[in-house]
Amino acid sequence: MCALLTQVNGIIFIEYRKGSLLPTFIIMTVKEHYDNHLGNFYSWMAGDFNTKQNEQQRFFIEQKILPFDTSIAIDLGAGHGLQSVSLAKLGFTVKAIDFNQQLLSELSANSQGLPIEIIYDDIRTVKNYSFPKPELIVCTGDTITHLSDKKEIKQLIKDCVDVLCDNGKFIVSFRDFSNPLIGDSRFIPVKSDDSRILTCCLDYLDNQVLVTDLLYTKIKNEWHQSISSYYKVRIRVTEIVDLIQDVGLKILYNEPVNRLIMIVAQK
Fold this sequence. Notes:
By secondary structure, this protein is of the alpha/beta class. It has two domains: 3-36 and 178-233, Nuclear Transport Factor 2, Chain: A (Roll), CATH 3.10.450; 43-176 and 235-266, Vaccinia Virus protein VP39 (Rossmann fold, 3-Layer(aba) Sandwich), CATH 3.40.50.150. The chain is 25% helix and 37% strand. A seven-stranded mixed beta sheet has the order 6-5-4-7-8-14-13, with helices on both faces. Strands 9-10-11-12 form a four-stranded antiparallel beta sheet, covered by helices on one side. Strand 7, helix 6 and strand 8 (169-174) form a beta-alpha-beta unit. Helix 3 packs across helix 4. The longest helix has 14 residues, at 49-62.
């Protein structure tokens, strides 16, 4: 039996070849998804903080990401601090922006004594934090696909270029959704231990990917399920590359890193 995903007033329906529209679940906004679901276990999902932070710092060193002018870096979608802490340890003064208070609280705990300003805000307000001019803006961890559509992605990249100082760098990472997963391959085992099991399901639409995070938590020998879904923008690598080059940035690095496409570009 064939099925087609359809959205009506924020509710996803499955339309079967023979049958009526059956309502399944309400889609959260990205912020709602993080505030009510993913933010509660994001750091567990990401893995040991020190290990991942050291990996990120090594990447920055390999790419010669070191202060050269204002020493100001902006971390868009800073989360619990993997990039912010790494940049601060390399000599940057960091403005860490995120819309999830729980993750920012974890960032605060992870960054004791480091020059990091923690900012509770939407990454689309990056121009509000343009003085003094940053020499580096990072937007990693698939954050850029959390925007509403490709127009917003284009605008964010343009805004970042506008506020960067001369020779400043823009670093972005994202998942390549060019080739849709189908059937059972849509279900991705993310992480598990004795008390938690996390699976992610991806459903591909023309310009979006419906992401569903299914978490099972063991409490007093009983397993409890929590589920939340939200949209990511389905954007191809070539589209991101075109957007970056169209605003005058020169791409210095474009390679997969830990299942993400990582791009380093310079103004």
